[in-house]
Amino acid sequence: MQGVTSTAFGPAELLHRLRARVSSEADSPITHVERVPSRPGRVAPWPDWTGPSVRDAFTAQGITAPWEHQAAAATLAWEGTHVVLATGTASGKSLAYQLPALSTLAADPKATVLYLSPTKALAADQLRAIVRLGLDDVRPATLDGDTAREEREWIRQHGRFVLTNPDMLHHSLLPGHARWGVFLRRLRYVVVDECHAYRGVFGSHVAHVLRRLRRVAARYGATPTFVLASATSGDPAGSASRLTGVSVTAVTADASPRGATTFALWEPPLLPPELADPLPALPQAASSPPTSAASDFSDSSDLSGQDAEVIQVRRSALRETADLLTDAIVNGTRTLAFIRSRRGAEVVAAMARRSLDEAVPGLGDRVAAYRGGYLREDRREIERALLSGELLGLASTNALELGVDLAGLDAVLICGYPGTRASLWQQAGRAGRAGNEALAVLVARDDPLDTYLVHHPEALFGREVEATVLDPGNPYVLGPQLCCAAFEAPITRDDLELFGPAAPRLVEQLVAEGVLRRRPSGWYWTHRGRPDVDLRGTGGSPVAVVESATGRLLGTVDPASSHAMLHDGAVYLHQGVTYVVDELDLSDGVALVRQEEPDWTTHARDVTDVSVVGVRSYVDAGPVGLFLGDVDVSSQVVSYQRRRLGSGEVIDTRPLDLPVRELRTVAVWFTVSPEALIAAGVRPTDFPGALHAAEHAGIGLFPLIATCDRWDIGGLSTANHADTEAPTVFVYDGHPGGAGFSERAYATAAEWLRATREAIASCVCESGCPSCVQSPKCGNGNHPLNKPDAVKVLDTVLAALPSIPAQTPPPE
Ligand SMILES: [Zn+2]
Ligand SMILES: [Zn+2]
Fold first, then answer.
1. 268: which of 32, 65, 315, 581 fits an S-S bond (Cβ 3.0–4.6 Å)?
2. Taking a C-beta distance cutoff of 8 angstroms, is the pair 772, 787 a contact?
3. Contact at 8 Å (CB) between 657 and 583?
4. How many CA atoms lie within 13 A of 440 on its CB side?
5. What distance in angstroms lies between residue 550's CA and the mean position of ligand 1's atoms?
6. Kind of pairing, strands 411-415 and 438-443?
7. How crowded is residue 764: how many other Cβ atoms within 10 Å of its Cβ?
8. For ligand 1, a single-atom ion, which residues have Cβ within 5 Å?
9. Sign of dihedral through CA atoms 337, 707, 298, 685?
10. What is the pTM for the complete model shown?
11. Cα 640 to middle of ligand 2, angstroms
12. How far is the CA of 631 from the centre of ligand 2 (A)?
C-alpha cells in the first residue's frame, strides 16, 4: 500500500519499512533492536488523609485512584519525610506533590506551599493544572521576572501556592525575606520539580539557594518538607540529599502502565567515496610554533553548526533523521524527532517538508518544527494539532523534554545521543499513546560517543541511568553563596554546618579578603549593596552579540567561549544565519557583527597550559599513574584559520591579540612512562599524536560516565609535562572550581578508558575520523593525531590500572 493512510503500522512493521530503504541486509543501518516489554499499571487507594475536596477535584478530572508510586511518595511527604519521586516520563509525578500540598492547604487555612521549576513554561503549566482543579482558597500564583509589582505585593500577602524558580528565590524572595515573613512562617512544603535539571555548576548554586531557604525559613519558625520530582536517575536519594542538604527518601518503583517499546539503534551508512567531501589537508600551525602540547578549549557552540565543516564520512544524522521522519509520516505514523540544536530542528523539518511535498503535494504541511522560545499560544496550537492528527510529525529541540505534555505519539526519532541515558529514556518515553506499542530510534551522529553506543547496546540497555552530578563544596560556588547568606542574615557558627565542611575555612578567607566581618554574633556582609552572584555560571558576565547595523541583540556567549567564537573576523552562526565579527570589545563585553555569507569558515587556534596545583588522590600503578587534583589552566587564542567552505582548504592564518584566560579547576589525568609506551610499540616521535588522539576520544566518551557533554570539559595532552615529568593526558572541568565531572571520571576511570579504547579500536576508518579521534573543538586543528597508537596508549594504561587502590597524598 502506497501513499498516506490513516492507520499507523505497528512498530515492527514500520521498522521493517524503514529498513527496506537500504538495499541489502548487510548494509542495514540498524545495529541493534531492543524490545522493552509492556507493563501493567498498579493503582492504590486514595490515602486516608487525602482531603475530601482534593479527592473530589481529582476524581472530576477522571483520576479515580492514584498509582502506587504516587500514593507512596505522597504519604511520605504527608508524614513529613523529605521525599524524591524518580520515575519515567508521563508517570504522573505532579499528583505525588499536589496531593499532600493541596490536602494541607485544605486542612490548614494558613499553610503555604512553594513550588520551584527550572523553567517558566513548566511553572505556567503547573499553575494551569492547579487552577483547573477548581479548589477553593488555594490562591495559586506564579512569581517570575514578568510578575508586576502590584501582583507581587498581592502574592506576598495572600498567595498560598507560589510557583517560581530558583533564580527568583535567589534574586528576590530570599534577599527580601522580611517582606515574605508571613508566607515563610507558614511554609509547609517546598516542591522541587524536574530536580535532575540542577546539575553541574548551576546545580551546585541551587543547592545553596535551597540551604539559604531552609535557614531563612527556620528564622521564621518553619521547617518545610521537601518533595522532589526527578526523571529516572541513578541514586536519586543521594542526588536529592546533596541538592537539599537534608536526608531524602526515594520512591522509584514506577507503577504507571506502559505499552511495549521497540528501540532501534541506527547508524547512518558510510557515503560512497565519490560522494564524500574531499579530506582537507591537515594544516600545520603556521603562526604559533607547534608545541608538544595539544589542547582543547571548552566551548559551547552549537553542535550542528559543525556539520558543514566536519569531513563527511557517514550520511549526516540530520539528513538521515529527516528521511526517517518523512517515511514515518508517509506511513501515517505520528512521530516526534528530537534534534539537539534549534537550527537542526528547523533544518530537519524543512527537509522533511520538501520530500513530503514531492511525494504527495500538500503533505508537507503536516510536519512542523518546535523549539524553546515559542510563544505559549503557538505551543498550545502545535500540541492541539498533534493530538488531533492534523500534524503527523514534529522536529523539536529538547524543549519538549521538560514537563510539556504531549500525547498521541507512535514513534520518536532521537537524532544524536542526548548526552545521558536519563535524557534518552525521557525522550523515548514520549512515544506510546494509551498503552499502544511504540517505536524509538536513536540515530547516531558522526562522533565517538554515538558510534560507540550504537555498537555497544549494553551501554544503554539494562543499565542504571546516571546519577545527577553536582558539587556544593566547590569553593567558587560556596564563597559567593556564603556572601548572599550573610547579606540575608548574619551567619552564625551553627549555620556553618548547613553549608558543608568547607564553609568554616571559606568564611575566614572571606574575612581576610574584607568581604565579611567577624562579630561575636556571627559573620556579617560588610558592603552596602547586595552581592552580585549569577546562578548559571561563575565565569563572569556573558558577551553580548550585537548586529552593528541595527543594534539588535542576537544572543550571548559565555565568556569562556567568547575568545574562540567571537574574535575579530570570526564567522558566527546564529539560528542558521551567518555573521562576521567586526570587533570583539572585551572591556564592554560586546561583539559587533554584520550579516554576511563568506565562502569560508573560521577556526580559532589556542595555546593552553596546565599546571598542577595539588593532588587530591592518586593511583600508583608502576609505569602508569592516575590522578585527581587541582590545576591552573591558562589558555590564549592566538590565531585563526580561514578555511574554504566545502573543501576545507586553508586560505590563510591570521594572528590575534587576545589576553590569556586563567582557570583554576579540577582535573583528572594519567601518565605513562616513555619506556612503557615504547614497549607497547609507540615510537617517541608518535607520542604527541597518540596521546592527543587518546585525549580527544576520552573527552568524547566522557558523557558516558558523567552527566555533562563534551563542551563542559577541556583537555590537554603532552609528550612531557613539566609537573608530571612524563607523557600525560589531562581532562579538566571547564568551570572554575570544577563541577564534579573530573571526580566522576577518576572514580570510574577503568570503565571510562576502556570504553574510549573500544570506541577508537572499533571505528572502521583508517587514520581517524570524527567518529573516533577527531574533535570538532580542537584548538590545534586536529593535529597531530595517531589513531592506532592511541589504542596502544590506552591498552598500556588499562593493563596497569585495575585493582590498585587509590591513595590520598600525605599533607605537606
Ligand atoms: Zn574513525
Ligand atoms: Zn585537540
1. 315
2. yes
3. no
4. 22
5. 44
6. parallel
7. 10
8. 763, 765, 769, 771-772
9. negative
10. 0.76
11. 15
12. 19
- Count of positions (residues) in the chain: 812
Q: What are phi and psi of 619, to 5 degrees?
A: -120, 120
The per-residue pLDDT for range 337-382, each reduced to its tens digit, is: 998 877 778 889 989 999 999 988 999 999 988 765 556 677 778 7
What are phi and psi for residue 185, nearest 5 degrees?
-60, -30
Ligand 1 center–CA 276 separation, angstroms: 15
Mind listing the pLDDT tens digit for each residue in 696-744? 999 988 878 776 666 678 899 999 999 999 999 999 988 888 878 898 8
Cα of 579 from ligand 2 centre, angstroms: 26
Tell me which amino acid residue 458 is.
Answer: E
Q: Which grid cell sits at 294?
A: 595539544
- Burial call 538-551: b when 16+ CB within 10 Å, e when fewer: bbeebbbbbbeeee
| Edge-to-edge order in the sheet of strand 438-443 | 30-36, 261-266, 438-443, 411-415, 335-339, 393-396, 367-370
What distance in angstroms lies between residue 309's CA and the mean position of ligand 1's atoms? 16
User: What would the pLDDT profile of 621-652 be if each residue is shown by its tens digit?
Assistant: 999 999 999 999 999 999 999 988 766 678 99
Q: State in Å: Cα 297 to ligand 2 middle.
A: 8
Determine the Cα–Cα distance for residues 473 and 484; give it in Å rounded to an integer.
16
* CA 751 to chain centroid: 21
Angle of CA points 492, 495, 501, to nearest 5°: 120
Chain position carrying cell 522532589:
228
Distance (angstroms) between ligand 2 centre and the Cα of 692 equals 6
767 Cα to the center of ligand 1, angstroms: 7
**Residues β-bridged to residue 610:** 633
